[in-house]
Design goal:
Layout (H helix, E strand, L loop, with lengths): L1 E6 L4 E6 L5 E6 L3 E6 L5 E6 L5 E6 L5 E6 L4 E5 L5 E5 L6 E6 L5 E6 L4 E5 L5 E5 L10 E2 L5 E5 L4 E6 L4 E7 L5 E6 L5 E6 L3 E6 L7 E4 L5 E6 L5 E6 L3 E6 L5 E6 L7 E4 L5 E6 L2 E6 L1
Antiparallel strand pairs: 1-28, 2-3, 3-4, 4-5, 6-7, 7-8, 8-9, 10-11, 11-12, 12-13, 14-15, 15-16, 16-17, 18-19, 19-20, 20-21, 22-23, 23-24, 24-25, 26-27, 27-28
Length: 289
Amino acid sequence: MQPIKEFSPAGLNCINISPDCAQMIFGDTHGLIWGLTVDTGAKIFRWVAHRVPVTAITVSKDRTFAAAGNSKGGISIVNLSDGQVIRTLPGHNDQIDYLFITPDGKELISGDISGLIDIWRLDTGDLIRSLSNNNNSRAPVCVSGNGKYFLTGGNDGTVSLWELASRKILLQKRFHEAGVTSAAISADAKGYASGDENGEISLWDFDKPENVSVLRCEKSPVTALRFSADGASLAAANSDGKIYIWDTRSGSIRDSVLTGKKSASYICLSDDSRSLMIRQDSTVTLYQI
């Protein structure tokens, strides 16, 4: 893995990168959302979403609109072509930590730092339902690409798999001895991974959750996870600033690099598995695999 490009956008606070690693959209500390091309760093747009820091951002599958959450719990839906705020949702009482728009563009899942999960109708702005796993739950750390399932992780090491349509828990199991810090779901929604504070990754299959493979990122908390498009690779980052590419079938490390920087809070593995982008504090780096 070799770094080939680096960006340090002013005020970077949260980020969303396109599946081909060609475009990045980020929210800043001033309430703005920006769009940049990865190849040249050219500005695509700069729109106002809030008057306080943007803390979470997600983009629709067709990348025509975005949802931006802020530090006070508010959520804005923004048209990316003209910057118009389509709708403002009442949001949460705590800082927004996670957002996801379903592939059909009809619903939004939001999570805050207290662990509350809300599901919204985007055409009306109505709150469909609020969910809370338990007092140890965190905001949803991952939603499947097909929008059918999402994971929550607990401070007690428990991972819960939810079905979005029924709003019910399909599986709840203590996969970890330490708090869950990250998670990922494969594109076909059959492979699942969760990382913990002790540097362990639990890898399991939807059909056989009892068969768990354990991958180890030394002893540092796992801060980010992402499957490749074919599910054959899993990218992981730990708090020491090390990046791993795992072979999900054999459990072996395909590649790794010690970045020499802070832990990554966001990781994106391109659809062709040839590029990797990570966010570390105020820096975004593009790696060639």
